[in-house]
Design goal:
Blueprint: E1 4-6, H1 10-21, E2 26-28, E3 35-39, H2 43-53, E4 62-64, H3 71-74, H4 80-89, E5 94-99, H5 106-109, E6 114-118, H6 123-132, E7 136-137, H7 152-159, E8 165-167, E9 179-184, E10 187-192, H8 198-201, E11 207-209, E12 238-243, H9 246-256, E13 261-265, E14 277-280, H10 285-301, E15 306-310, H11 318-328, E16 333-335
Parallel strand pairs: 1-8, 2-8, 4-6, 5-9, 10-11, 12-15, 12-16, 13-14, 13-15
Antiparallel strand pairs: 2-3, 3-7, 4-7, 5-6, 9-10
Helix pairs in contact: 1-6, 10-11
The structure holds threonylcarbamoyladenylate and magnesium ion.
Magnesium ion binds next to loops.
Length: 336
């Protein structure tokens, strides 16, 4: 398949909508990561997403809308607490799991009776959804198992020749995927942390952070979000997260290091006294979120085999960074 490369201008938006109306798959920019979009209500179109991505078919897709009124088309019920979240965080990097309406096919919901709904804030994503006139199912636009794409080049590396078109919308501003939440007994359960953080959601209702956010779920655990059971965000290198302050990090890595060790650090100061290649994430949680997936791809491109990473904060936006990094490390963490 020859993949068309589209820009963010209005002719490109029209072309993307035309291809999507024909049941094709188009990669589109969003504020979190690029998405691999198709008509959420068209079974054949959604199947093409799974093929392009190489994704297990029991993993449900998020459905993207351009207008809050679409919540009522896709969900059979929108509780008061969901409306409050929508009021505050939509458009934005938040996905709400709600009971699905009959129009949402099983391929989209991965056979579940719920549907994840998100209204992106990225203007190009919104214009494309509006031009289509239907909601778009879209997982992250990476090949299954590799880091989510946060730039046009990442998408092109993974999807060229596999999809009808890629819309180049530049770099994603958030850099990690949306916060995924569901509702239970008046509480908000965080299934996947993101830029909309626990502290902000707590202002709406009591929150619970799902066990799968911080730990590897055991094989027999109840999995509320199928995506959590899959190996994810995996770079080729063997990554270890090193918990502790900068001095502890330097001491630990100094002892463990050999010739093919590389470091994933907040800033190059962290590497003082360590003679190793490194990639910087930035010192604030927001910067770390924005840079994480590029950093993981860069480490692969540099041929990194063994990587020691500094451990992000486990609160605020940092929790989202930690959640992705610990998966990239296959849950390998040490306390230095
Ligand atoms: O920011 C994002 O959310 C990006 C952009 C493109 O919008 N999308 C994204 O999609 O990250 P994906 O498919 O890579 O991740 C969706 C996650 C998966 O872990 C999936 O299991 C979970 O959301 N999910 C989707 N629908 C669900 C449902 N009905 N119940 C529970 N979990 C659901
Ligand atoms: Mg993904």
């Amino acid at each position: 398949m020859v993949t068309e490369i589209l820009g963010a201008d209005s002719a490109s938006v029209r072309r993307a909508a035309e291809l999507l109306s024909q049941g094709q798959v188009v990669a589109i920019p969003t504020e979190t990561v690029y998405g691999l979009a198709a008509n959420a209500l068209d079974e054949a179109a959604v199947k093409r997403i799974f093929e392009a991505k190489g994704r297990p078919s029991d993993n449900p897709l998020i459905v993207h809308i351009a207008d809050k009124a679409q919540l009522y088309d896709l969900a059979s019920e929108v509780p008061e607490i969901a409306l409050k979240c929508a009021e505050r965080f939509m458009p934005g990097p938040l996905t709400m799991i709600l009971p699905k309406a009959d129009c949402v096919p099983d391929v989209t919901s991965g056979g579940l009776d719920t549907v994840g709904i998100r209204m992106p804030s990225h203007p190009v994503a919104r214009e494309i959804i509006k031009a289509c006139g239907f909601a778009l199912a879209a997982p992250s636009a990476n090949l299954s198992g590799s880091p989510s794409p946060t730039s046009f080049r990442h998408v092109k590396d993974d999807m060229d020749g596999r999809v009808a078109a890629i819309v180049d919308g530049g770099d994603c501003s958030v850099g990690v995927e949306s916060t995924v939440i569901c509702f239970e007994n008046g509480r908000i359960r965080i299934l996947r942390p993101g830029f909309v953080c626990d502290e902000e959601l707590s202002e709406i209702a009591e929150t619970v952070i799902d066990k799968g956010v911080l730990e590897q779920l055991s094989a027999d655990a109840v999995v509320r979000s199928p995506g959590m059971k899959y190996k994810h965000y995996a770079p080729k290198a063997d990554v270890t997260v090193v918990e502790g302050d900068v001095k502890a990090f330097r001491d630990y890595v100094g002892k463990k290091m050999d010739t093919n060790t590389m470091l994933l650090v907040f800033s190059k100061d962290d590497c003082e006294g360590l003679d190793a290649g490194y990639v910087e994430l930035g010192t604030t949680a927001e910067e770390q979120a924005q840079n994480l997936f590029t950093a993981l791809r860069t480490l692969d491109e540099m041929g990194a085999q063994k990587v020691y990473a500094r451990c992000p904060e486990k609160s605020g936006v940092g929790l989202a960074v930690y959640n992705r990094l610990i998966r990239a490390a296959g849950f390998k963490a040490v306390k230095a």
